[in-house]
Amino acid sequence: MVLVRSNTEPSPSEESETHTKLKLKQPRRILHFSDGTLEEYSTDEEMDQVDNTVCTIDPPTDWIPWIWYTSTNAAYKTLAICETIGEYLANFFGITSSKYHSEIEYYKKSLHNSQPHQNSAFNAEAGDSKVSVNT
């Protein structure tokens, strides 16, 4: 703690005497270390800038709308999470592809494989020198 000397104005009844007051200045915070303590004092500028307003949070006046909003918001977020997890699981198990996708792809490949033979036979009849031999 520090003693601070402050001079005051003499009172009208005691004009001949000057009064000196000593006031105790409290530390803003005390820091404790292994080799001792450190006391931090605030300056006069910091004392002037102190905001004495108290921040209060008022509870909601209507509880039913607040509960409704909170519960619907939680429900929407839960639904979004469940949809995301379901999408990942569907991709993992292969449910997203169509039911007959593999059969359709097999049919397209078989059509594609059979077309070159028909074209080469058609070209051989037209006088082209390409001849295909099927074994």
Describe the protein in words.
The structure is a single chain. With 135 residues, this protein is an alpha+beta fold. Among the domains are: 63-96; 99-129. It is 45% helix and 16% strand. It contains three helices and four strands, in the order E-E-E-E-H-H-H. The protein has helices at residues 44-48, 63-93, 101-125; strands at residues 2-7, 20-25, 29-33, 36-40. The protein has a two-stranded antiparallel ribbon with strand order 1-2. The N and C termini lie far apart (109 Å). The model has no long low-confidence stretch (mean pLDDT 75).
The biggest sheet amounts to:
2 strands, antiparallel
Bin the strand percentage.
Answer: 15-25%
Multimeric state of these chains? single chain
- Mean pLDDT across all amino acids: 75
Radius of gyration: 45 Å
Q: Can you list the strand order of the major beta sheet?
A: 1-2
Number of strands: 4
Would you tell me the structural class of the helices and strands? alpha+beta
Number of helices: 3
